[in-house]
Amino acid sequence: DTYNYTIRKIDRQGRVTTLAGLGGRKGYADGRGRWARFNKPIGIAIDRADNLYVTDADYDGKPNGNCVIRKVDQRGNVTTVGGKPGLAGHKDGPVSEALFNRPAGIAVATDGSIFVADTEADLIRQISPTGVVTTLGGQYLLEKVQDGVGSDAAFFDPQSLVVLPTGVLFITDTLNNRIVVGRPLD
Question: Which string of DSSP letters, residue by residue, matches 79-147?
C-alpha cells in the first residue's frame, strides 16, 4: 500500500490486514508489525519460505527516500536486506555496504537470489544468497537504449522484472518502451 506506507495482506476470505507499517506514518525503521516504517514501498516479491521482499524507495518523492531492500517475514518482522536509508547511489559488495538508487522492481529466484530493477540508477542488480550485491547490467546513470552484456548494456529507468525458474530475466526498460530479456552469467 505505497501511499499508505504499509504492507497489506488479503487472506482467502477477502479480509485485509496490515502486516507491517502504520498507515499514514512514513519513515524508516526495522521492527515488527506496526513498529516498522516504510517510505513508499513499491515493489514486492516472495521467496520459497513465504518471506516478502520489498523495494522501499519513495520513487516519486524528494529527497532520496529510503533506497533500501526490505524483508518481511510471515510474522511481520521487517529487516533491511541492503542499502542505506536516505542515501542514494551505486555500490556493489556486501549488503551492509551496498547502495541503491530508488529501486522499484524486485524478483526472487528459486535459489534465493534477489534481482532488483535499480530504477534511478538505470541498473539491474543481484543480491546473492550469501549477501553480495552485484551489478548485472547497465551503466550507472547512463540512460539510453543499448543491448549488450554487463556494462555494455544500457537501460532508461527499468522499473519491473521477473525471473523464470531457468534464470531468464524479463525486464521492463520503462522509458525506452521495451521489454528486455537477459540471462545472468555463471
Answer: EEEEEBTTB---B-EETTT-B-SS--EEEE-TTS-EEEEETTTTEEEEE-TTSEEEEEE--TT-BS-B-
How large is the average pLDDT for residues 92-97?
96
Say which residues have a Cβ less than 8 Å from residue 111's Cβ, sequence separation at least 6.
129
- Average pLDDT for 97-103: 95
What is the structure's pLDDT at 118? 96
How far is Cα of residue 179 from the mean position of the Cα atoms in its chain?
18
Question: Is residue 11's pLDDT more than 60?
Answer: yes
pLDDT tens for 21-55 read: 999 999 999 999 999 999 999 999 999 999 999 99
Question: What phi, psi does 13 have (nearest 5°)?
Answer: -90, 0
For residues 161 and 118, is the Cβ–Cβ distance under 8 A? no
Rg (CA), the chain: 16
CA pair distance 167, 52, nearest whole angstrom? 19
Q: Are 17 and 8 in contact (CB under 8 A)?
A: yes
Q: Residue 173 in 3-state DSSP? A: strand
